[in-house]
Amino acid sequence: MTTFAQLPPDTNRLSSDWHKLNNALLATLYPVDRLGNWLQGLSYVVAPATDVELDISSNWHSPFEGAGVESIMPKFSQALQTGIMGQYVDQLTPKPSGGEASGVMGWIADKIGINPKSALSRAAAPVRNAISEGSGRTGMTKLNSTQVYVGSAPIQISMALHFRAFGNPQAEVRDPIDELAQWTLPQQMATSNILTRASSAFKARASAVDVLLPSKVPQLVALMFGGYTFSPMVIEGMQRPLSGPRHGGTGEQLHAKVTLRLGTLTSLDKDDWQRAGMGLPIKIFGG
Predict the structure, then answer these.
(1) Which residues pair with 149 in a beta bridge?
(2) 166-201 burial string, b = 16+ CB within 10 Å, else e?
(3) Is 108 left (phi over 0), alpha (psi -120 to 50) or beta?
(4) Enclosing H/E stretch for 76
(5) pTM of the entire structure?
(6) Which of 269, 281, 182, 176 is nearest to 233 (CA)?
(7) Total structural domains in the chain?
(8) Residue 181 domain flag
(9) Model confidence pLDDT, tens digit, residues 18-39
(10) Domain for residue 146, yes or no?
(11) 200-214 per-position pLDDT tens digit
(12) CA-CA distance, 21 to 279, in Å (whole number)?
């Protein structure tokens, strides 16, 4: 498991003076390469973390939901289940009532001279009984509700980091927050169009990659907190206050709460979770 003793030298540490705070309450973020390895010599950020939430989600789908009678004949199955179908049958089939026919079909049978107690009435009895048995029943089965695994999303982590000036507002508040902001933003954004870049690249004999893909994505980071090290990760969002108490002389913020949303670079499997518990990077394709 990665420990604070394995962190880079304190000369690269950006943090408030939390020397009396238990290390278990501190979160550490540091820059890594695509395989999750430390980029030694670069600055890293240490701060107390609160409201830390880890979200693991998997996508499951029920492909057999349409295998039941409800999807083939939805209105009919609903009428059977609620018992409404029986009322329709009572209105449409002849039945004896005081020696005279009743119901729509009974009225028709009476008009054309068919005895409601005859074959038509007897034939309707099994139908009426079958419909009565359908009341309160459904076509849902174990097969209909069986789910299949579709995939997993990268792990999401949200947290709040706290910075407070005990002696140097610039070093303890502004510098670590600025470092987080720079990790969130692209490392470089091209300002010229492709024709200008192609002309310059031709003169400088640069590669086609520099022409077609001139910008650089944000810095990948690792998070060490709560006995786990998740690496590599991306910072998906950052919120920080611009207002609040400030130093009377320099105007720097005296304390700030920064909210981060992070996500793993890829989805994780069981082995990756175990590796995170041992302080190892997750396994990446091509690594």
Answers:
(1) 60
(2) eeebeebbbbbbebbeebbeeeeeeeeeeeebbeeb
(3) alpha
(4) helix 74-82
(5) 0.72
(6) 281
(7) 2
(8) yes
(9) 878 888 899 999 999 999 999 9
(10) no
(11) 655 556 666 666 777
(12) 22
